[in-house]
Amino acid sequence: MSDKLNVLRELAIPFPVTVSFRRQARAYALQYFTQDAQQRTYLNTLAVLIADAYFRMLGFKTNLAKPERWNAAHRLWNEANELELAGLGNLECRIIATGQQSVILPPESLSNAFSNPFGVRIGYLFVEIASSEKVATLVGFLPAFHPETTDAEVAIADLQSMDDLIDYLTLTQEFAEKKITYLRNWLNNVYEADWELSMRDLKTATCKKKLQLARQVFEMQLSVSQSNNELIFVRVNVKSESGSLPGGMQVSVPDESDIYTETVNETANLISIPLELSSGEEFWVELRIGEALIREYFIA
To answer: Is 66 helix (H, G, I), strand (E, B) or coil?
Structure first.
């Protein structure tokens, strides 16, 4: 077993499969006509019920009460495997078998992050159910906008951990409560009132904004461009109105499951951080001086 897979397994969450879960999943699955569809729906529904109980235990609000959620005819061809997290979107729950080495995400799943009639997909949760059907394991996840989801087949070892999932949902929740700047708008010549256009050419839009932190004024500037393969390229520049940046100042951005930070250790006039993002990916830029901080929130 690889080191990455070992870490993933150590952070996986075992969860009991109750009699009530099995009874509810079986009753719902019987709405489908073929045996294959019934078994697939049964396992998918178990995964959703387990995930629902787990996230409610952590304090997240979920919504399984919609009548259409449990009406097979209303759902048409949907797989019945999504869990709605209130205010955030849907986690698509996918079953994996014990010892499975990779997962396959159907092409329509990869290209359809926004068009699910039951809400925006925010990621994929992978659940393993023991043959006894009495214990399940929440193994890991992939966010909807992640490099690994550009191909249909994903190695289990490349999944992100359940700890990463909680961090991801916490960040998504944070975004839901904050003012967000949509960078794609800049490429379409649409600019928010608090961002000033400073440069524009055929491929790149650059806007700037003044921010106050620790009684000082800073200028944050973002340059945005897009390649032909849907990647969004962003360069974040931060400078001070007074000239040099204060020693110890930090500028941070999320970097996959970690945080990348640039710190002013010597005299510097500028901090510059390049980013390569998927279209629709969320990120933030944080300026910090001691205990004082400010964050700006963006969607590529």
So the answer is: coil
